[in-house]
Amino acid sequence: MLSATPRTVRTGARRIVPRAAPIIAGRCPNPSSFHQHRTVNARSLATTRRLGYVATTNPNPPFDKKNMSNDVPARVALIGARGYTGQALIELLDKHPYMDLRHVSSRELAGQELEGYTKRKITYENLSVEQCAQLDVDAYVLALPNGVCKPYVDAIDEAEKDKGKKSVIVDLSADYRFDDTWTYALPEVTKRSKIAQSTRISNPGCFATAAQLAIVPIVDLIGATPTIMGISGYSGADSLTDHMHEREISHHTTDVAFIPHVSSWFRGIHLTINIPLNRKMTSRDIRTIYQDRYAGEKLVKIVGEPYVKTIQNKHSVEIGSFAIDRTGERVVICATIDNLNKGASTQCLQNMNLALGYAEYEGIPII
Q: A Pfam family for this UniProt protein (predicted)?
């Protein structure tokens, strides 16, 4: 059980600025600027030259524990906890040494006791927008359907306007993924220093997370529109054309064509990505680029062949295959992700850790 923390101590620990450790100088892959900047300042990064192109080491390395500036539990409200993602996040918060879940809102489960959380007894509440805005918490997680988050955000903003404090909001829906006033937070791509200083965070989608991580290292080598075929377990959802994640990937990284499917397994996603190249490459060249780009990352693994059965219930993304066709100008890359973990709840916790001043991987099983 977590003991109550004196208000004066909690308040002082909520936002400690500056928290961000310096990033290696140079142009880091900012998701919002891929369309404008497809090159890297090689002079400011360690580089390896192969076949006339420059492969960089990780320009946005993990903070891990070096950026930790807070050891006071953060009071958390989870709004919309009935779904699979909400339940996965509750399991992670239960094991996190500093996350103190205080409120769980669900209209369908109101009055029932929350199961699977051992730090304190919590009863589901059916909180109105106005009631949510008046909660005394340090962080909100909005695990609500697309299109319904704005009233909650507006009410929280209004309630906090004159209080001299600003809680962290992490939105798991797509509502703010295209809003430049929010931080689109894919930690392996977005500057971690930016996430660490943000209070309004949009959590990327599951398909979009895996696809962007599988494309970003060779975005400079793309010769034509990549095609992505994604297969999700039935805890996900599909739409054959104009999928939200197609728009999301295209907005933040590069234009893609995305074709999703749903299969018979419960959780886990497999992506097969066909990428035309603007020069001849070998499979070994491509693999080395990915190993360099994700050096030090604990939640991105470069493997021989990614399989859904090995990624289920894990917290990382696996990327591999790197098959080059006979011309040397087309590569097929495969990636897998657990859509309820790194595709949603794990990434949410990773972003909360950064924004609240905890070690980046605190509470995340590294397996």
A: Semialdhyde_dhC_1
